């Protein structure tokens, strides 16, 4: 006979807690699986999202540079120049001399915008730049100095015979404008012609990728007539009004003055 349960009145039967049923994983049929093969489900961890800053955001975060503070002497000199006026060459050079506030004999500069980049020219100034240039004729002694890293000349003149010895130093001499070149007269066939080289010869060329030419053409101590003739020679060598768009002159320590090109 089976077992019977007896309960008294007023007492309830204690129910055994039911065992929690474990949910069986649902079977998923995937075509292509062979018998006995199973698929294990792996929960992926949330990936970290990396937000890259755009170029504009990075530029905004850059520190803003403080405006350049000019000296009292510069401001006084600049007050003498009308920034919207173009001055005839003679007046511009006179004003550049007057507004130079350096304690030394400053250099008079010329900054020119031409129509195209890649323009170059050679010019012999009628009165020089007021600075003595050290001219050296390339020799074996020159090679020894270059090997030692010593450059104590402003112009280097060479003959074709010694050029192969200078080629290893092209990366040093080239950027300084010291590599002998037939265009500027520093590469000569006869060494005797080297003595006829003029130290007043300038090589003019635009900046790399920009139609701008920067050069100097004298000292503040030079008289105005000499400076005018030097500046006229430079502008003419660059093509005059056909090539020159704008021109400015200034002392090495002084405000810029716009020149009327005519």
Describe this structure in words.
This protein starts with 54 loop residues before the first helix and ends with a strand. It has a 4-stranded antiparallel beta sheet, with helices on one face. It folds into 2 domains: 77-131 and 199-262, Ribosomal protein L1/L10, rRNA-binding domain (Ribulose 1,5 Bisphosphate Carboxylase/Oxygenase, 2-Layer Sandwich); 133-198, Ribosomal protein L1/L10, domain II (Rossmann fold, 3-Layer(aba) Sandwich). α4 links the parallel β3 and β4 (155-157). Helix content is 21%, strand content 16%. It is globular, with a radius of gyration of 41 Å. It has helices at residues 55-61, 72-78, 89-98, 140-147, 163-166, 170-173, 224-237; strands spanning 107-114, 120-124, 135-137, 155-157, 201-205, 212-219, 244-251, 257-258. With 262 residues, the protein is of the alpha+beta class. Residues 13-26 have a biased composition (Basic and acidic residues). Keywords: Repressor, Ribonucleoprotein, Ribosomal protein, Translation regulation. InterPro entries: Ribosomal_uL1-like (IPR023674), Ribosomal_uL1/biogenesis (IPR028364), Ribosomal_uL1_3-a/b-sand (IPR016095). One of its GO terms (biological process) is regulation of translation. Belongs to the universal ribosomal protein uL1 family.
Descriptive labels:
16% strand, 262 residues, 8 strands, four-stranded antiparallel sheet, Rossmann fold, Ribulose 1,5 Bisphosphate Carboxylase/Oxygenase, alpha+beta, globular
């Amino acid at each position: 006979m089976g077992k019977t349960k007896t309960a008294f009145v007023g007492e309830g039967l204690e129910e055994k807690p039911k065992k929690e049923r474990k949910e069986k994983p649902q079977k998923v049929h995937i075509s292509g699986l062979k018998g006995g093969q199973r698929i294990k489900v792996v929960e992926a961890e949330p990936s970290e999202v990396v937000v890259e800053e755009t170029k504009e955001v990075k530029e905004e975060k850059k520190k803003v540079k403080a405006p350049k503070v000019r000296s009292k002497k510069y401001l006084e000199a600049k007050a003498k120049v009308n920034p919207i006026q173009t001055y005839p060459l003679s007046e511009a050079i006179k004003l550049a001399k007057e507004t130079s506030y350096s304690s030394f004999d400053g250099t008079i500069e010329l900054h020119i915008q031409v129509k195209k980049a890649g323009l170059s020219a050679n010019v012999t100034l009628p009165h020089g730049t007021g600075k003595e240039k050290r001219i050296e004729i390339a020799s074996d002694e020159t090679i020894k100095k270059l090997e030692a890293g010593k450059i104590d000349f402003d112009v280097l003149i060479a003959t074709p015979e010694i050029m192969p010895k200078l080629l290893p130093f092209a990366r040093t001499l080239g950027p300084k404008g010291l590599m002998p070149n037939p265009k500027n007269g520093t590469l000569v066939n006869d060494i005797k012609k080297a003595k006829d080289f003029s130290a007043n010869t300038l090589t003019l060329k635009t900046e790399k990728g920009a139609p701008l030419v920067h050069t100097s053409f004298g000292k503040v101590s030079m008289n105005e007539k000499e400076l005018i003739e030097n500046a006229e020679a430079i502008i003419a060598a660059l093509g005059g009004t056909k090539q020159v768009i704008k021109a400015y002159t200034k002392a090495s320590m002084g405000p810029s003055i716009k020149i009327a090109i005519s």
